[in-house]
Amino acid sequence: xxxxxxxxxxxxxxxxxxxxxxxxxxxxxxxxxxxxxxxxxxxxxxxxxxxxxxxxxxxxxxxxxxxxxxxxxxxxxxxxxxxxxxxxxxxxxxxxxxxxxxxxxxxxxxxxxxxxxxxxxxxxxxxxxxxxxxxxxxxxxxxxxxxxxxxxxxxxxxxxxxxxxxxxxxxxxxxxxxxxxxxxxxxxxxxxxxxxxxxxxxxxxxxxxxxxxxxxxxxxxxxxxxxxxxxxxxxxxxxxxxxxxxxxxxxxxxxxxxxxxxxxxxxxxxxxxxxxxxxxxxxxxxxxxxxxxxxxxxxxxxxxxxxxxxxxxxxxxxxxxxxxxxxxxxxxxxxxxxxxxxxxxxxxxxxxxxxxxxxxxxxxxxxxxxxxxxxxxxxxxxxxxxxxxxxxxxxxxxxxxxxxxxxxxxxxxxxxxxxxxxxxxxxxxxxxxxxxxxxxxxxxxxxxxxxxxxxxxxxxxxxxxxxxxxxxxxxxxxxxxxxxxxxxxxxxxxxxxxxxxxxxxxxxxxxxxxxxxxxxxxxxxxxxxxxxxxxxxxxxxxxxxxxxxxxxxxxxxxxxxxxxxxxxxxxxxxxxxxxxxxxxxxxxxxxxxxx
Length: 595
Hints:
The chain is α+β, with helices and mostly antiparallel strands. It has helices at 9-18, 22-72, 121-131, 137-144, 159-168, 190-193, 213-217, 219-222, 238-254, 316-325, 361-367, 370-380, 382-392, 418-425, 434-445, 470-486, 561-575, and strands spanning 94-95, 101-113, 151-157, 173-182, 195-201, 206-212, 232-233, 259-266, 272-278, 334-336, 342-343, 346-347, 358-360, 500-509, 516-529, 536-543. Strands 1, 2, 3, 4 and 7 form a five-stranded mixed β-sheet that branches. A five-stranded antiparallel β-sheet has the order 9-8-16-15-14, with helices on both faces. The chain has a two-stranded antiparallel sheet with strand order 5-6. β11 (342-343) and β12 (346-347) form a beta hairpin. The longest helix is centred in the N-terminal third of the chain and has 51 residues, at 22-72. The N and C termini lie far apart (121 Å).
């Protein structure tokens, strides 16, 4: 800004020449300058007032809009602000192969207390015990009247319970929103799902973590925000699983069994379509592990995966298949199964002291001859037998996608002698899980390839290395079919579906001191269906079953496990999309009138 001098020299000299007073010029310039300064200040003040007016207008507009919004919304319970941003509460759903929900999340509330904000802590404790009888009233009174500033009362509330607590009217009782894991089908597939619980917890959120089963195995993936809500898709079929569990439970009760398990697996992909273990539990209210007694007595124990048993005569077809593969025999080769047969000083006997005499290899499987498979094992030799069973997967745990699978490692003999080789050929001396057996039998059904069981849905066949030739697999499958049509599994025939399989009745070992029980067995039926176009393998195992409809109790698998498996196949085969075969017969007396 350039200012005009108050006494400009030119005007002063000019005024003196004219005889005028020079001071008048200074007074006039001073007046003009003051007027200019006043106008500038006024303009600046008007601008500031305008800006402040606009700011106040905007602020009042925002407040008005917010007040209108709150007036139109539902009233909400005020909550203490505790940061829970670091806790990832979201967890992906788990669905079956058809997209049906197996595990999901549900919004719920937790109940906590600020004792120092309570108006009437004594009354609050009394009212809370009326709503939650499991709470200790004396303990609540002590906590509410003590020096604690924060106290969890309940981690999960139903909507009804939340309303009852709200009606107490105590300002020191507050609610925190959170998500909890929900299993809408209850105990269905409980051993697969496992369960979940809370990890890190805040007032406004809680970390949901897997505690067992597939929930724990895929815990990191289910909690990964990068999934963007995509569910974990399992190979299980919810409908088939429900039917399998219902039939298995009915069979267990009818046959007075202590426990039971079943595995249904696709022989091409290794997909486990259903897997059941009884007794089971509800993952929504997961029981505590046993602190004493046998692990198998707990409903948490997964008999299909963790249970390792001597599976009896179901192993005989492995000995026959290996002998066929090595070219030592053919299905028609006759072997003398007459007794006595002694190996390393031990007598090898038959069931009920039978003496079958000369039998073909096929008939050895049909009649389930211990001596027959024992002689096959001796011709194979311990080393080659070990190699074959190892390739079938009977030496290691199966990498199924549940944490319990790690506890199902087979029990092998310390020294694999000729006696071990003989007893293992008919299912004694080596303990494995029903899931191992399912993987082994799948090789007979898919043409001789290894498959690895999985709980994840696959896009197509997942055949592994070849374990035997296609001819050997076909011949073995023919033997399994004859076991049902002519042998010990006659109750396994299902109209319209060609079923093949092998029974196994194994004495149950005593948990301590060695030896076997005289009246307790583990019964197994390992089956493949339909044998004319194999699609599935089904293993049914019963713990200590006994059939009591006759004059004497019957404990063999043919009377116990086989009927249960047959009923299961009869019900689930249509659900799997398998069309029954209808026999066509010539009808005498019919006249063909067609041209």
